[in-house]
Automatic annotation (TrEMBL):
Domain Putative restriction endonuclease: 31-205
CDD domains listed in its UniProt record: DUF820-like
The protein, known as: Putative restriction endonuclease
Domain of life: Bacteria
Pfam families reported for this sequence: Uma2
Organism phylogeny: Bacteria, Bacillati, Actinomycetota, Actinomycetes, Micromonosporales
Keyword set, alphabetical order: Endonuclease, Hydrolase, Nuclease
Keyword Repeat carried by entry: no
The organism of origin for this protein: Micromonospora coxensis
GO function term, MF aspect, one: endonuclease activity
Coiled-coil regions listed in the entry: none
InterPro entries, A to Z: Nuclease_put_TT1808 (IPR012296), Uma2 (IPR008538)
Length: 212
């Protein structure tokens, strides 16, 4: 844990974490070593993904930039996407429709500025024997339901990319927020299929091409 007073601080402030306490107790210069998110005052710390997953995230962000910028959108990597003083997440890729207006908003990006959040997850290795349980999808820390938090905050689009060692099994699913506050599937692509949509900006990529 990257804390000024050590890992004990997580327990001491469990359920009472806020933006102000994070700025006071987390060593900002070392945050690149782990992902720090907060759900209802509870700090969730998880390691960043392996290099191959980072490559996929960077590849997708780079593919987004030309069309996103032409449409007036702004592509970022991980930001502190903030829903309240006690709740924030760090999407793997974040697309804003409006740039932060202050230093405070750059550190703690209001969810109201977000056009689309992207989450990468990794499919576990397939079972080795017949009759075994199907492979699980990993990558989301327990208690951090990013898609739910984005829906509740009114973020209009959510993209989920499932990585796999076999590129033809990789999947990308785009969801559009409904008027009722839920998610409706907007587009899906597997392997070499291309996910093509016009909103929230022109998107065109094949999941299998995100990894080398």
């Amino acid at each position: 844990m990257l804390l000024t007073r050590g890992a004990d601080m997580v327990g001491e402030l469990d359920g009472r974490w806020t933006i102000q306490r994070a700025e006071r107790h987390l060593r900002v210069g070392e945050l690149a070593g782990a992902r720090h998110e907060c759900v209802d005052g509870r700090l969730v710390v998880s390691p960043f993904p392996p290099a191959t997953e980072s490559i996929a995230m960077a590849s997708l962000a780079s593919a987004f930039v030309p069309a996103a910028e032409a449409a007036g959108r702004h592509v970022f990597g991980r930001v502190n996407l903030t829903f309240s003083t006690t709740c924030w997440i760090q999407p793997d890729v974040t697309v804003l429709h409006t740039l932060p207006a202050s230093d405070e908003e750059e550190r703690w990006v209001p969810a109201a500025l977000c056009a689309m959040a992207v989450e990468f997850v990794r499919r576990a290795s397939p079972p080795a024997r017949r009759g075994a349980a199907p492979p699980a999808v990993t990558g989301r820390p327990e208690g951090v339901d990013r898609r739910r938090r984005c829906a509740e905050a009114g973020v209009p689009w959510f993209l989920r990319v499932e990585l796999d060692r076999r590129p033809q099994r990789m999947t990308a699913e785009l969801f559009r927020r409904t008027d009722g506050g839920g998610w409706a599937p907007a587009a899906r692509a597997v392997g070499g299929q291309r996910l093509r949509v016009r909103d929230p900006f022109p998107i065109d990529f094949a999941p299998a091409r995100l990894l080398p």
